[in-house]
Amino acid sequence: MSTLVSLRNITKTYQRGPEQVKVLHGIDLDIEQGDFVALMGPSGSGKTTLLNLIGGLDSPSGGEITIEAERIDRMSAGQLSTWRSHHVGFVFQFYNLMPMLTAQKNVELPLLLTHLGAAQRKRNAEIALTLVGLADRRSHRPNELSGGQQQRVAIARAIVSDPTFLICDEPTGDLDRQSAEEILQLLQLLNREHGKTIIMVTHDPKAAEYATHTVHLDKGELVEAAPAH
């Protein structure tokens, strides 16, 4: 496998009033193509900050972020936006679905940024919904779906553009245990059978068991990076 994500001496500092708060302290981390990485650590350890930097939602205060030989830490906000649309699929804790749109139309949303025509967008959305087991729910709106089904729609939306990797921020944090396990099994399937690289923030040790590697953060420092099993 080749290195997909390379972080070198990553720092992140936020200005809060007169005070500077340093969230990340010199993080070095490599993530290989095809990995399923669980980022773990207590609240305030810097997990989501690190995830946002890898996903191009924020820029580091210092250090280098190289993804597929591209230095994204050097990109402007506009360049990052374009880069994200081509390379990153996002899955959040609270689904972030558009309530007035059907499952299919929600999944199609990222494709509106492409040159695909309406018929191909529909076809791609149907393929993604079939992959997550929701082909028969494509005409349902979010309020007609369970929490687990809404998260499946969100995952279909994340993969419909065939991104380089998936960023998942507490994807099971709002679900009951059975629904959570179904979502984790789906992510594991996407990783094992479809080769998707997945980077997931979680505080749940059971969720981390589905990953191939775990990375532990504490007080903005990398304290452990090891295979999950």
What attributes does this structure have?
globular; ATP hydrolysis activity; transport; six-stranded mixed β-sheet; 229 residues; Rossmann fold; ABC_transporter-like_ATP-bd; four-stranded antiparallel β-sheet; 10 strands; alpha/beta; nucleotide-binding; transmembrane transporter activity
List the helices and strands and how they pair.
Layout lengths: L2 E14 L2 E14 L3 E5 L6 H8 L7 E6 L2 E2 L5 H11 E4 L11 H6 L9 H14 L15 H13 L5 E5 L7 H16 L4 E5 L3 H4 L4 E6 L2 E7 L2
Parallel strand pairs: 3-8, 3-9, 6-7, 7-8
Antiparallel strand pairs: 1-2, 1-4, 4-5, 9-10
Brief account:
GO terms for molecular function: ATP binding; ATP hydrolysis activity; transmembrane transporter activity. With 229 residues, the chain is α/β, with parallel strands linked by helices.
Describe this structure in words.
The protein has a domain at 36-48 and 82-227: P-loop containing nucleotide triphosphate hydrolases (Rossmann fold, 3-Layer(aba) Sandwich), CATH 3.40.50. Helix content is 31%, strand content 30%. The chain starts with a strand and ends with a strand. The model has no long low-confidence stretch (mean pLDDT 89). β9 (213-218) and β10 form a beta hairpin. α5 (147-159) runs parallel beside α6. With 229 residues, the chain is of the alpha/beta class. The protein has a 6-stranded mixed β-sheet with strand order 6-7-8-3-9-10, with helices on both faces.
